[in-house]
Design goal:
The protein is α+β, with helices and mostly antiparallel strands. The chain is about 35% helix and about 20% strand. It has 6 helices and 5 strands. It has helices at about 40-50, 70-80, 105, 110-120, 125, 135-150; strands spanning about 1-5, 5-15, 20-30, 60-65, 85. It has a 3-stranded antiparallel β-sheet.
Length: about 150
C-alpha cells in the first residue's frame, strides 16, 4: 500500500479481453500513475497469449484506456506492437497532432473493463482490502477471477 491524497491506498490495474475475461492484473501503490504499469500488464498478458512453441494464441488488435494513459510514448509503444491505441486526447492538447485518430465507437467498449472492476469490488475481501501484503491481495483477486470463470458458461 502506498500513500495518496486520501491516505493509504492501492490501485488495481487490469487487462481484459473484449468479453471481460481478465488476462492480467497488477497492484501498485495508490500514488503510482497508471501509464507506468502499461508495459507490465502487456508483458504479463503476453506470457498467457502464446503457446509453448512461441506461437500467438491471440493478440490484441486495439487497446482502450482512459485519459490517464494518454502519452505520445504509449501511442508509439502500442503501434510498435501492432495494437491500435483507443485513448482519448486530453482537453489541453491538439487532437490532430496524434499519430492515430481517436475511434469513439471503439472507445465505448471500454466499459467492459469498468464492469470487470465493478464485479471484482463485489467481493468484500477485495473491496475493503483485508490483505496487508500485495502478494496476498493479488492472490485474492486471482481467486475472484477463478470464481468468476467457474460461473461463466463454457
Amino acid at each position: 500500500m502506498g500513500r495518496s491524497r486520501g491516505g493509504l491506498s492501492s490501485k488495481i490495474h487490469i487487462l481484459c479481453d473484449r468479453l471481460g475475461h481478465p488476462l492480467h492484473v497488477h497492484v501498485t501503490a495508490g500514488q503510482v500513475h497508471e501509464s507506468t504499469v502499461l508495459d507490465i500488464l502487456l508483458q504479463g498478458a503476453d506470457e498467457q497469449l502464446f503457446d509453448a512453441a512461441g506461437e500467438p494464441i491471440a493478440w490484441p488488435v486495439a487497446l482502450a484506456g482512459d485519459k490517464g494513459y494518454r502519452a505520445d510514448w504509449i501511442d508509439e509503444y502500442l503501434i510498435e506492437l501492432d495494437i491500435i491505441p483507443v485513448i482519448p486526447s486530453k482537453t489541453n492538447e491538439d487532437r490532430d497532432a496524434r499519430a492515430v485518430a481517436f475511434d469513439r465507437e471503439a472507445y465505448r467498449d471500454r466499459n467492459i473493463v469498468e464492469r470487470l472492476i465493478g464485479w471484482l469490488k463485489e467481493y468484500r475481501r477485495i473491496f475493503s482490502r483485508f490483505e496487508k501484503t500485495a502478494k496476498n491481495f493479488v492472490g485474492m483477486i486471482k481467486m475472484a477471477f477463478i470464481h468468476q470463470y467457474l460461473k461463466w458458461p463454457t
